[in-house]
Write a structure and sequence with these properties.
By secondary structure, this protein is mainly beta. It starts with 33 loop residues before the first strand and ends in a 9-residue tail after the last helix.
Length: 79
């Protein structure tokens, strides 16, 4: 981003690219699949039986440009 505006409509790939200090803002988005565990919870069913529930969530950024432009804190969930 340069002075609050996006430079082009696609993300920069690997290789050389220049960032002007004090003018450009470089945001690094991880597009790998990230998994995190949901803490185990015990619930009580209608017939008074306790059940332990475990879960794992998988999260992946599909469109990094949209996540930078439209979401306030896209990385704050799993960091």
């Amino acid at each position: 981003m340069r002075l609050g505006r996006l430079l082009g409509n696609e993300a920069k790939g690997p290789g050389l690219f220049f960032v002007l200090p004090c003018v450009d803002n470089y945001i690094n988005i991880d597009i790998r699949t990230v998994s995190f565990d949901v803490p185990s919870q015990e619930i009580l069913t209608k017939d008074s039986v306790t059940v332990a529930v475990d879960a794992v969530c998988y999260m992946r950024c599909v469109n990094p440009i949209s996540s930078v432009k439209n979401v306030t804190n896209a990385r704050g969930i799993y960091i």
